[in-house]
Amino acid sequence: MGLVFVAFILVAGGVAVASLYYSRSARLKRTLRQAPRLSIENFSEREPAKIVGSLVYIGEPLISPLTGRTCAYYEILVEEYRSGTDDDGYWETMIRESQGQNFVIKDDTGTAIVNPIGAQVALTIDSRTKSGTFDAPTDQERNYLNSHGQDGKGWVFNKSLRYREGILEAGETVAVLGRGVKEPDPEGVEQASGYRSTPPMRLRMRGSQKVPLLISDDTSTVQ
Known about the structure:
Layout: H1 2-34, E1 49-57, E2 62-63, E3 70-71, E4 73-82, E5 90-100, E6 103-106, E7 111-115, E8 120-122, E9 127-131, H2 139-147, E10 161-168, E11 173-178, E12 180-184, E13 191-193, E14 196-198, E15 201-206, E16 214-216
Parallel strand pairs: 7-15, 8-16
Antiparallel strand pairs: 1-6, 1-11, 2-3, 4-5, 4-10, 6-7, 9-10, 11-16, 12-15, 13-14
């Protein structure tokens, strides 16, 4: 009876964690879909708003340690299948990792620098692989597991693992919701305005604990 109860708690805990993660992602996407969209040129420093544009790297991009793809932000989830009672198994999180660096968003009206540190991010998971009993991890998957002190081998057979990854990469369309400030753009070109030239400006978006940035590349959020 005690073992059955423990197994039930473990399964319920795994379901609760998964539900929390996916509900958070769904809420974030819904918020982005409903947010007012402004061009970068018309963005107001007074109110948070959504901008949408094409991503451009600043300097050298990151390299995802799981797939080796270049990106400005990556999120990786590795899960292990656990057998429950009466063949009622569940997936338990083994590794969850995300990392990002500043990147640029460009639309037809201007440029915005985005700092994703501390942001709430909902990515399109575009890399899904598995390893298991008769399908050993690839060299890259094995190296990634080892870098986190994990292994793909069980007592006898390979562990049943699944790998999920989403990235923000150059050229894709990204939505960012939050507050921003205008600042001089050292790389911009001055625009003539009457008798005076207007100094080039750019937008800088950075979140805080009270108002974090929301970022997504999901197609439903970039409209």
